[in-house]
């Protein structure tokens, strides 16, 4: 440990809540959000009057589209919260940025209890427009976005095209095979079979994986996460206060949020992404080591990202994630490093970030039912692909 | 097939319109003598404002690629190849583009490529063909 002041160590997760995972849901985005928030408050043993901060990634981006229909403004007004601080915004280190911002608000003393949330309704949206999330729909008319204009004129229509080029490069540099990559999807499905909230729960075989439709080579249909309607809320509390609440505090032992490369999908390390910057920072802020991890929840918006996170986090050597996951035993619930134990986003549903925190906490608290791992105290959650990356080291005390 | 086109400004206009003269224009910093992409008014390495577009050879190689099979829109002809190209002028000088003029399944990493332009309205999109 070399950093001098590590303020996140004063912050703990005190409660979690998740709405139904609908495909699609009949509830409105705000109904899903309120459901998740009240569940999280009850879990922590707090009321809305205790909440003095609200954080979200990415917020409603002034348009409230299905990618993130509810932001802090709407939630504060709807629930009648009285806060010292609130914040949201897309330009941050990936889907865990709400947790990181909330932790900073507590570490500075602005807040005692921050409600972090993330709502997504992409399944409902796709009932009427399958192209709703296409990159070329991010801007109207000519593309004035500083970044997407370097992709959309070449018919990069989805982030999968960019993720696929990372996978192709990983295959080329390290000899990773499609059967090895398949283990991410197969492992997630096996875990989802034991998660009543998961979207896809029927068994998936290697044969089914290999015969599934190619979307953007070498990535297939089963390498893509599954859209859903969902909201998740996480309560962050100052650690000394959290010690008197319902749940054993799960402390944020280290944040990884660094970006030391351009914010770009092609000008960065193609097989390390921004994940290498975030992970290096996280471990620098902790005394724990990769061998201490009891459960790893790794971003699987596309399967290749999970392989890259395995390496970036030092859970296996650089370039060896393919061999590490080969056969699937090491990353299974019975293996040395269980990953994505709720089915990840590939089979559990694209909750887009906070689902990894929910599962990491459920496992640490021993509340994961049929899929519960043997008791352990240290977990890692990592989210994002390309230039979006952040990670959290979580420790139950 | 139709294209999503960029909004032109003084920073990106040389890149998107250089093809009218069949030249690929990449921004270059006179102070640190390095190319950079995407173009901008400031060099990202040394922050010098002494930057300007410079014609490059248009030759390079494929760093990675993907064959897109998914018909994201009705007017999209699939499959097509998206690639990350590294230009010969400088190690790490990369851009995203397309590989055209060959069977998508024949594309491979490290193949040598050369630029060709395709015009849509006032934009000349640089694409690459494999050099045999």
The CATH topology of the largest domain in chain A turns out to be Peroxisomal Thiolase, Chain A, domain 1
**Total domains of chain B:** 1
What is the oligomer described by this structure?
heterodimer
Number of domain modules of chain A = 2
The shape of chain A is globular
Protein name (chain B): Zn-ribbon domain-containing OB-fold protein
Pfam families (chain B): OB_ChsH2_C, zf-ChsH2
Domain ChsH2 C-terminal OB-fold (chain B): 54-117
InterPro entries (chain B): ChsH2_C (IPR002878), ChsH2_Znr (IPR022002), NA-bd_OB-fold (IPR012340), Thioester_dehydratase-like (IPR052513)
Description:
- The complex is a heterodimer of chains A (397) and B (132).
- Helix content of chain A is 31%, strand content 16%.
- Chain A is an alpha/beta fold.
- Chain A has 13 helices and eleven strands.
- A nine-stranded mixed β-sheet of chain A has the order 3-2-4-7-1-8-11-10-9, sandwiched between helices. A two-stranded antiparallel sheet of chain A has the order 5-6.
- Chain A folds into two domains: 3-124 and 229-242, Thiolase/Chalcone synthase (Peroxisomal Thiolase, Chain A, domain 1, 3-Layer(aba) Sandwich); 157-225 and 250-396, Thiolase/Chalcone synthase (Peroxisomal Thiolase, Chain A, domain 1, 3-Layer(aba) Sandwich).
- Chain B has a single domain, classed as OB fold (Dihydrolipoamide Acetyltransferase, E2P) (Beta Barrel), CATH 2.40.50.840.
- In chain B, strands 4-5-6-8-7 form a five-stranded mixed beta barrel. In chain B, strands 2-1-3 form a three-stranded antiparallel β-sheet.
- The mean pLDDT of chain B is 97.
- Chain A: InterPro entries: Thiolase, Thiolase-like, Thiolase_C_2.
- Chain A: Residues 266-395 form the Thiolase C-terminal domain.
């Amino acid at each position: 440990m070399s950093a001098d002041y590590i303020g996140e160590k004063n912050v703990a997760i005190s409660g979690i809540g998740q709405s139904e995972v609908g495909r699609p849901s009949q509830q409105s985005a705000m109904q899903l959000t309120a459901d998740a928030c009240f569940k999280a408050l009850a879990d922590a043993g707090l009321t809305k009057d205790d909440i003095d901060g609200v954080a979200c990634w990415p917020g409603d981006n002034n348009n409230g589209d299905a990618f993130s229909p509810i932001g802090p403004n709407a939630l504060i007004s709807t629930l009648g919260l009285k806060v010292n601080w609130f914040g949201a915004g897309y330009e941050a280190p990936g889907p865990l940025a709400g947790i990181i911002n909330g932790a900073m608000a507590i570490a500075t003393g602005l807040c005692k209890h921050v409600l972090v949330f993330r709502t997504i309704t992409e399944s409902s949206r796709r009932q009427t427009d399958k192209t709703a999330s296409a990159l070329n729909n991010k801007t109207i008319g000519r593309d004035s976005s500083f970044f997407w204009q370097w992709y959309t004129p070449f018919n990069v229509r989805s982030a999968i095209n960019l993720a696929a080029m990372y996978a192709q490069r990983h295959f080329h540099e390290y000899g990773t095979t499609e059967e090895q990559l398949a283990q991410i999807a197969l492992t997630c499905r096996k875990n989802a079979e034991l998660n009543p909230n998961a979207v896809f729960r029927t068994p998936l075989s290697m044969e089914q994986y290999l015969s599934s439709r190619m979307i953007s080579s070498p990535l297939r249909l089963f390498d893509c996460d599954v859209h859903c309607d969902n909201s998740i809320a996480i309560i962050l509390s100052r650690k000394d206060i959290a010690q008197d609440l319902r749940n054993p505090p799960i402390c944020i032992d280290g944040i990884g949020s660094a970006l030391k490369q351009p914010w770009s999908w092609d000008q960065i390390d193609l097989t390390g992404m921004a994940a290498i910057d975030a992970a290096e920072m996280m471990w620098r802020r902790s005394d724990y080591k990769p061998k201490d991890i009891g459960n790893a929840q790794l971003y699987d918006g596309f399967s290749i990202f999970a392989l890259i996170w395995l390496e970036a986090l030092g859970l296996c050597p650089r370039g060896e994630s393919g061999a590490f996951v080969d056969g699937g035993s090491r990353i299974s619930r019975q293996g040395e490093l269980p990953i994505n134990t709720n089915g990840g986003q590939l089979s559990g549903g694209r909750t887009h970030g906070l689902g990894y925190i929910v599962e990491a906490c459920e496992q640490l608290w021993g509340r994961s039912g049929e899929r519960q791992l043997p008791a352990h105290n240290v977990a890692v959650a990592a989210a994002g692909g390309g230039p979006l990356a952040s990670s959290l080291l979580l420790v139950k005390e | 097939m139709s294209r999503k086109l960029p909004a032109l400004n003084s920073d990106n206009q040389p890149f998107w319109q250089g093809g009218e003269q069949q030249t690929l224009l990449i921004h270059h910093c006179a102070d640190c003598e390095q190319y950079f992409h995407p173009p901008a008014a400031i060099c990202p390495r040394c922050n010098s404002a002494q930057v300007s577009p410079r014609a490059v050879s248009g030759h390079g190689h494929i760093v990675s690629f993907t064959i897109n099979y998914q018909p994201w829109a009705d007017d999209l002809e699939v499959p097509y190849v998206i690639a990350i190209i590294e230009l010969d002028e400088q190690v790490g000088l990369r851009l995203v583009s397309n590989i055209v003029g060959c069977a998508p399944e024949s594309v491979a990493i490290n193949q040598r490529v050369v630029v060709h332009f395709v015009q849509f309205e006032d934009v000349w999109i640089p694409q690459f063909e494999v050099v045999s």
